[in-house]
Amino acid sequence: MATPTCKHIAEFLKDVTPQSKGCEECLKSGSHWVHLRMCLTCGHVGCCDSSENRHARAHFHASKHPLVKSAELGENWRWCYIDEVYL
Q1: Using CA atoms, how far apart are residues 73 and 60, in angstroms rounded to an integer?
Q2: What is the pLDDT of residues 29-47, one digit of tens each?
Q3: What percent of the chain stands above pLDDT 90?
Q4: Are 39 and 47 in contact (CB under 8 A)?
Q5: 3-state secondary structure string, the chain?
């Protein structure tokens, strides 16, 4: 069986910096998050799918930016929402 690959890296992977130190929407609304994810196209920081509001996934659906990485200290992984694979 072939290893799944991501077809979106060339188009969407950019050199970005986080736009905030926490989930942008949760900080505005006073909500809480479990873990943070950063968009690898624009630097948006949103909360993970384990968080109540799932702002990182909502950002993907609104922006169509499929690549995120963990914004947690000690974690070094990336994910593609479209291909559903770790990078």
Answers
A1: 22
A2: 999 999 999 999 999 999 9
A3: 93
A4: no
A5: CCCCCCCCHHHHCCCCCCCCCCCHHHHHHCCCCCCEEEECCCCCEEECCCCCCCHHHHHHHHHCCCEEEECCCCCCCEEECCCCEEC
* 21 within some domain: yes
Decide if 36 is inside a domain.
yes
Query: CA 39 to CA 32: how far, in whole Å?
Result: 19
Name the one residue in this structure whose structure tokens are 């920081």: 45
CA distance 70 to 39: 9
Cβ atoms of 8 and 83 closer than 8 Å: yes
Domain count, the chain: 1
Output the pLDDT for position 2.
Answer: 58
Domain contains 4: no
**Which tokens is 24 given?**
């942008």
